[in-house]
Design a protein that fits this description.
Oligomer: single chain
Radius of gyration: 35 Å
Strand order of the largest sheet: 1-2-6-3
Distance between the termini: 146 Å
Helix content: 10-25%
Structural class: alpha+beta
Shape: elongated
Strand content: 15-25%
Number of helices: 4
Length: about 200
């Protein structure tokens, strides 16, 4: 018995025959947090997110489609390992030689398609603020620098670091050599020592 032609078995090829399945699970109180990252180096049709480690590509595609009605053409994801540091973050006094590695973070970059009924899938970030005085930027930077200095004191190579007052000592030595400062000893001569305690007659006689 002759076999039927292959075209009769498969049928005509339709571009819309293969579509990525979308999730149908209803989630009313999500237990995850997605963070949109500012990425000026990416085109407006792409966006990057910080997602939980348990998140997969289909989860993000479903989330963007059902919440924002944004179809996603492709998703790229990678897990970024954090650096090793001493003690856990937030410790008031970092304990030396107590190594700790923070949990890895997962990033996903999506390529957005045209939004249904809106005519485009581009997103442009608003202009970045230059003046951060309203958020007390100077105090934040000072606190960060102080924390880095304290962490360096308990680091693995803390013994190899120069002393903290090395710069000020070099400036004082330079001023002395140039004659801008006059060296004076820090002690004073108070003369011959005197006896403070004296014999007292406590017999009452």
């Amino acid at each position: 018995m002759p076999h039927p032609p292959r075209s009769l078995l498969l049928g005509p090829l339709r571009p819309t025959a293969f579509r990525t399945p979308r999730g149908r699970k209803a989630v009313y109180l999500p237990s995850f947090t997605l963070t949109l990252i500012r990425t000026p180096h990416l085109p407006p049709t792409m966006a990057s997110f910080l997602v939980p480690l348990s998140f997969n590509k289909l989860d993000l595609k479903d989330y963007l489609y059902h919440v924002y009605n944004i179809p996603v053409l492709s998703v790229r994801s990678f897990v970024q390992q954090q650096r090793v540091r001493q003690d856990k973050p937030g410790a008031k006094l970092p304990r030396p030689r107590r190594w700790y590695r923070a949990r890895s973070i997962k990033k996903m970059t999506v390529e957005m398609g045209k939004v249904d009924g809106m005519g485009g899938g581009a997103f442009v970030w608003p202009k970045e603020e230059k003046d951060l005085e309203a958020w007390d930027k100077k105090a934040w930077d000072s606190a960060q620098e102080a924390q880095e200095v304290e962490n360096a004191k308990f680091g693995a190579d803390a013994a190899k670091l120069p002393p903290m007052d090395r710069k000020s000592m070099a400036e004082q030595a330079k001023a002395l050599l140039e004659g801008k400062l006059i060296w004076r000893p820090s002690w004073r001569d108070y003369g011959r020592p005197r006896e403070v305690e004296t014999d007292m007659n406590i017999s009452g006689g």
